[in-house]
Amino acid sequence: MLYYIGLSLAWLDYFLGVVTCPGIVPTVLTVLWKGQTKTAAIVSQILGMMTGFAVWLGATKALYGVVNVTTSGSQLSCMYGVIASFVSPAIYTVAISLIKPASFDWNKLFEVELITDDLNAEEIEANKRAQMLSPAMIKKMKKMSKFASFAGVAMFVGVWIIWPYAMYGSRYVFSKKISSLSPFFTGWIVVCIIYAFFTFFLVTFYPLWDGRHQLKIIVLGLLGKKSPTRGIPQEHVHAGQEPMFLEPLDTETKGITATGKDK
């Protein structure tokens, strides 16, 4: 369909870049900056998208004198549009948040309650205690949050800034036909294949290993067997709290306490 209306996949890719990039910075600040307001997170993305389209079409008009499918699909004008749609929301969301500052209380995330119509008071209280995080777990989460932030910034600077601008400045053309550039091209392809397989195995199998204890609890629960939390790493166990046994609830017998003993 795109072919018959004169659009190519390259043009669609550039278009999606302008549309999706405005959501990156506000989304990141949603989990990393408590000062971002709800209004700023929403409005900044809309303004960022409008800015990206304005810069994209404006750059196309300035560079080529006319705006059509061919000229708007040029790499240079699209690059300007994507950069504008990515950077401008960062300015908008900070400015709007500072107009009417807010400070989000992260502890509210721990107040989310499950719908437990068929549980008694003691079972509800046991579930609340099970959802709490120990100091060790909170410390670990803060450490991993800092690591994720650093890794995200490093990946962005390397993949979005250093590498593209270096390749653009060198006027390098990806082609195996040029004998002097053939080793680099071949090495690039090999690295891409290795990276793709590494990412596949990491994303597919590591979450299963990391959540093996929780998966064990779920499987044993489905099989109707008890599963003590002493098999879970210590950061998940709260100080001064006895290990709880998870077992399926009997709709006819409600006398199961948090320790797995009958009343």
Short summary of the structure?
With 263 residues, this protein is mostly helical. The chain has helices at 9-20, 24-32, 38-64, 69-72, 75-99, 121-131, 135-170, 182-210, 212-222, and strands spanning 227-228, 245-246.
Supply the number of helical segments: 9
Strand percentage, roughly?
under 5%
Query: Helix amount, in percent?
Result: 55-70%
Structural class estimated from helices and strands: mainly alpha
Question: Number of DSSP strands?
Answer: 2
H and E order:
HHHHHHHHHEE
Strand order of the largest sheet: 1-2
- Give the low-confidence spans: 229-263
Main β-sheet description: 2 strands, antiparallel
Q: Rg, please?
A: 26 Å
Give the overall form: extended
Oligomeric description of these chains: single chain
Distance between the termini: 68 Å
Mean pLDDT: 78
Task: Outline the structure in words.
This protein is an all-alpha fold. Among the domains are: 1-104, no CATH class; 181-223. Helix content is 62%, strand content 2%. The chain has helices at 9-20, 24-32, 38-64, 69-72, 75-99, 121-131, 135-170, 182-210, 212-222; strands spanning 227-228, 245-246. A two-stranded antiparallel ribbon has the order 1-2. α1 (9-20) packs parallel to α5, α2 (24-32) packs antiparallel against α3 (38-64) and α3 runs antiparallel to α5 (75-99). The longest helix is centred in the middle third of the chain and has 36 residues, at 135-170. The chain is extended. The protein starts with 8 loop residues before the first helix and ends in a 17-residue tail after the last strand.
